[in-house]
Amino acid sequence: MRQTPILITGAHRSGSTWVGQMVGKSAEVCYIFEPFNKDFGPGVCRAVFDTWFPYVTVENEGPYRRCISEILEYKFHSFKELMLIKTKSQARLWWENFYRFKRAGIKKQRVLFKDPIAFFSAPWLAEVFDFQVVVLIRHPAAFAGSLKRLQWHFPFNDFLKQPLLMAGPLRRFKEEIERAAREPLDIIQQAALLWKIIYARVLDYRQEHPGWIYLRHEDISLDPVGEFRSLYEALGLTFTPAIEQHIREYSAGSNPKERPDKQATFLKRDSKENIAGWKKHMLPGDVERVKQITADVSAHFYTDSEW
Fold first, then answer.
1. DSSP assignment, residue 234?
2. What is the mean pLDDT of residues 214-221?
């Protein structure tokens, strides 16, 4: 009998890598990094995704359903991936994934997708494959500040390329998305609009899927051990002393307060100090713009005192 898989999702830059890796330390799970990422090869997932945030439903699942089933059956397409290797880092990643899948198959581990890009497909994954879903929430100014620091722009045309997504969950944002695709916004405006779109959908999820787990990045950062212990319990995983020590190591006050400049996945940080790190990098005018653009949605997650 297949073990219930886990999806950790939410907006990118919301702590999904941190949370995914801390949960991934469990010997009971097999951590898989972003199978919906269109920039990755076919080793882990042979489905072809040509947009960011693909929206998969029962209406268009044809090219994807078997591919996800293969991952849950621990099938790694080693030869397909091997043919694309050009660098040492790619070769190392190939070996890590090959070993991870082999071990997972032997131990029958639960598959864990760490994938913010699968956010809009979460209901399909839950309905078709019985994924247990964890949705991460992060302050809109922190999200915008992170994208600004990394200079990560978003192609809103990727939403417009998906008729089912635009006719469904994003219908209410059609005009704003079309405008953003036609008249490029600055990175603060992009980030604020993207945050509003994603977390308006989280509000829908909270109504439609009350059994999913919803966690604020800030709450985890304030009490990492307590929050992860609760998360492990909710996921039905064993919280061991070794895992607790690992969490403490990655969130201790002795760690850097921020990621090194331009690094996207540096995980060892002073988690409490990191909560308000965005206030040092965002201009007051930028913060106000983010607040104005996201106000209708952000008020459901953050109070005025948290700005």
1. H
2. 97
